[in-house]
Design goal:
The complex is a heterodimer. Chain A is mainly α. Chain A is built from 13 helices and 2 strands. In chain A, strands 1-2 form a two-stranded antiparallel ribbon. In chain A, strand 1 and strand 2 form a beta hairpin. The radius of gyration of chain A is 23 Å and the shape is globular. The two termini of chain A are about 35 Å apart. The relative contact order of chain A is 0.12. The C terminus of chain A is likely disordered. Chain B folds into 2 domains: about 230 residues, Rossmann fold (3-Layer(aba) Sandwich), CATH 3.40.50.300; about 110 residues, OB fold (Dihydrolipoamide Acetyltransferase, E2P) (Beta Barrel), CATH 2.40.50.140. Helices cover about 25% and strands about 35% of the residues of chain B. Chain B is built from 8 helices and 19 strands. Chain B has a 6-stranded mixed β-sheet, with helices on both faces. Chain B has a 5-stranded antiparallel β-sheet with strand order 13-12-11-14-19. In chain B, strand 4 and strand 5 form a beta hairpin. The longest helix of chain B has 18 residues. Chain B is elongated and about 75 Å long. Chain B starts with a strand and ends in an 8-residue tail after the last strand. The mean pLDDT of chain B is about 90. The chains are: A mainly alpha, B alpha+beta. Bound molecules: adenosine-5'-triphosphate (ATP) and magnesium ion. The site of magnesium ion has 2 residues of chain B, from helix 1.
């Protein structure tokens, strides 16, 4: 196809791209470069002196058992959030795809959580699950379940997974619903006439036809769970109790901002950055640039 | 024995009546073609028989068993969809085997039956392909194969040939007829194609606005259309209609265009002066020097024959289409005559045929 120039001269396109480019430069590229640089240095806790340290920070990181624990925890967290969020979203989408009364209201309500800020989402969950003031928390304790996610590691992980998965349900729901609606009706009818009923029909026809959507969502959810959940976790448990909910993202913050180990924290950021780049490349590779999402991390 | 019986079937979508009172009975092995204009309810009727829509009233009997409220998955009816509706993620083999697997047939039985059906339809070399790797005609055959392989009690076809090109359509039409004869499966076939309607069916049901306008053999429908709608719908180019009045104690018609025609097949009921519609097919109009003058608007040469469009130069200026063998005659004016033995007489008020 012939390429056509829409803009008469060169200045206009440059002027149009400039603001976005500047923002990216100042808020993304510059800090990223800075992180790469500091990851190669060692600084004293007061930030007064720094000296070049080569790859020491990285070597230390991967020999640190705490870091390896955090990787394991993060992988578990990513899988748990993605699985929970996607399966609930699929279930809800299947119901929303049916011819039911009040379908539009139901769909609209399901999209709301996506519009809520992470901190607000966390507050909602605190109001539900906090052991002394939360609706469910109080109920649990009254009925003999000793519930306190500030003390119990497993309960803390459960709460964080729940809250983070819940926030992503809307997003998954919209995609699954769109996917379900693009399954041709006549194909499902043909399956019905071939004798396939309910669950069998879903498993053999609908679900395989949803595969592209599912694959796209798996990537998006893993990225979300790894990089986009910091706000929610920080507001709920701050990574605690102990290190029970300390994902890699939380660890970067704790080590750098709280414990002022800037070198190590930067090295962790760089590792995460490579992770994001790898996942994004994967996403582009398999889904094309059409399957986009506002950049994570 | 009646294989399929529809009793007093009706269907409303909200306040729109789509089907009003369909009664129908199919003998075992019979192929019934349902034909009608777009939107007359053909697909709806088929989908009700399939179980994909529920009727607002009426009953469906399959081999004398009431299946009105039986789920489509338990009806043992196969359907060929207009867009084929193949399972896009499965190979041709899996598409055909799907229904058999659900019925719990053994692996060998399935392979045997699918191979046999594929051979019958010339699909053997495509068994490993996905639908998107097939041409339109091949997909159509897979859709047929998927229906045939199940050996259902009833076949439903919803315009299965409408997405094929003209040549392929003619070939597949003949193939469907041969297959249906050979397998002896009772079939309902929906189309809006004249030729399919005439050639495929043992009987023809003409639907008009959700009502059966006529149910008879194709030749019967062609030769004795029950009303002006059927007369105009079946046959291409469409039948010409001429206004007339009944005279001479019901033994003749006086055409508005002038001529007086005596009925050769007996007298019609009704008093003299009753208004009539006389139907004459384009191929039955003769050129006759004694006849009525016709002003020619348009000549369409079709090779072996010619279509002439014109208007009668008589009161009413009735438009007329004539089909002549051979070339068109010279001149702007023709004189035409209406042979009495090829006339269809309808009541102008009701549109019904006067026998
Ligand atoms: N689900 C529905 N809801 C409301 N109206 C419907 C529905 N399905 C069909 N109709 C209406 O019923 C009428 C008959 O539809 P149907 O599909 O049976 O027509 P058809 O004879 O098959 O036409 P075509 O030859 O174009 O396929 C149409 O007027 C259509 O608008
Ligand atoms: Mg239709």
């Amino acid at each position: 196809m012939e390429r056509r120039t829409i803009f008469g001269h060169r200045l206009l396109p440059v002027a149009l791209v400039a603001p976005q480019f500047l923002l990216t430069l100042v808020f993304f590229l510059w800090p990223a470069c800075e992180a790469v640089w500091t990851s190669l240095t060692r600084q004293d806790p007061f930030g007064l002196h720094s000296q070049f340290a080569g790859f020491d920070n990285f070597v230390e990181l991967f020999t640190d058992s705490l870091y390896r624990d955090s990787i394991g925890r993060t992988v578990f967290f990513m899988i748990a959030v993605s699985a929970l969020s996607m399966s609930s979203a699929l279930l809800l989408a299947v119901f929303a795809d049916r011819e039911i009364r009040g379908r539009m209201t139901y769909r609209t309500l399901l999209i709301w959580p996506y519009a809520i800020a992470p901190a607000m989402a966390a507050v909602l969950w605190i109001l539900l699950l906090q052991p002394r003031i939360g609706l469910i928390g109080v109920l649990l304790n009254r009925h003999g379940v000793s519930w306190d996610y500030h003390l119990n590691d497993r309960q803390a992980m459960l709460v964080v997974v729940l809250a983070c998965a819940w926030k992503q349900v809307s997003y998954n729901f919209i995609f699954f619903l769109a996917g379900l609606q693009s399954v041709p009706r006549s194909v499902l009818e043909a399956a019905r006439m071939d004798g396939a009923r309910g669950w069998h029909r879903f498993r053999t026809i609908t679900f395989p036809l949803l595969a592209p959507t599912t694959f796209f969502l798996i990537v998006v959810n893993l990225v979300y769970a790894a990089f986009d959940t910091f706000g929610t976790i920080q507001a709920l448990t701050q990574g605690g109790p102990g290190k029970a909910t300390e994902t890699l993202m939380v660890k970067v913050y704790r080590d750098g901002v709280v414990n002022l180990d800037i070198g190590s924290s930067s090295a962790q950021s760089v590792v995460l950055m490579i992770g994001v780049i790898a996942l994004t490349a994967l996403q582009f590779r398999f889904l094309g640039r059409g399957g986009r999402r506002e950049s994570a991390a | 024995m009646a294989m399929l019986e529809l009793i007093g079937l009706r269907k409303n979508f909200g306040t729109t009546e789509v089907l009003r009172q369909i009664d129908l009975s199919l003998a075992s092995g019979e192929m019934l073609v349902i034909v009608g204009a777009s939107g007359c309810g053909k697909s709806t009727l088929l989908r009700i028989v399939a179980g994909l829509e529920t009727p607002s009233a009426g009953r469906i009997l399959l081999e004398e068993r009431d299946i009105t409220s039986v789920d489509p998955s338990a009806r043992d009816i196969a359907m060929v969809f207009q867009n084929y509706a193949l399972y896009p993620h499965m190979t041709v083999f899996e598409n055909m085997a799907y229904g058999l697997r659900i019925r719990g047939l053994s692996r060998e039985d399935i392979a045997h039956r699918v191979d046999e059906t594929a051979a019958l339809l010339g699909l053997s070399e495509f068994l490993g392909r996905k639908p998107r790797q097939l041409s339109g005609g091949q997909r159509q055959r897979v859709a047929m194969g998927r229906a045939i392989v199940r050996e259902p009690r009833l076949f439903l076809f919803d315009e299965p040939l409408s997405n094929l090109d003209a040549t392929l359509r003619v070939r597949t039409r003949a193939e469907i007829r041969r297959l249906q004869r050979r397998l002896g499966v009772t079939s309902l076939y929906v189309t809006h194609d004249q030729v399919e309607a005439m050639t495929l069916g043992d009987r023809l049901l003409v639907l008009h606005q959700g009502r059966p306008a006529q149910l008879a053999t194709p030749m019967e429908v062609f030769e004795h259309p029950a009303d002006t709608y059927v007369a105009g719908f079946i046959g291409a180019p469409a039948m010409n209609f001429l206004p007339a009045t009944l005279i001479e104690a019901g033994t003749a018609a006086k055409l508005e265009a002038g001529p007086l025609v005596h009925f050769i097949d007996g007298k019609r009921d009704g008093s003299d002066g009753k208004t009539l519609t006389i139907g004459v097919r384009p191929e039955h109009i003769r050129i006759d020097p004694e006849g009525v003058p016709l002003r020619i608007d348009l000549i369409e040469p079709l090779g072996s024959e010619t279509l002439i469009h014109g208007r009668l130069a008589a009161p009413g200026e009735t438009p007329l289409v004539i089909r002549l063998a051979g070339k068109a005659p010279e001149g702007d004016i023709l004189t035409v005559a209406f042979p009495p033995e090829q006339m269809h007489v309808f009541d102008a008020a009701t549109g019904r045929r006067l026998p």
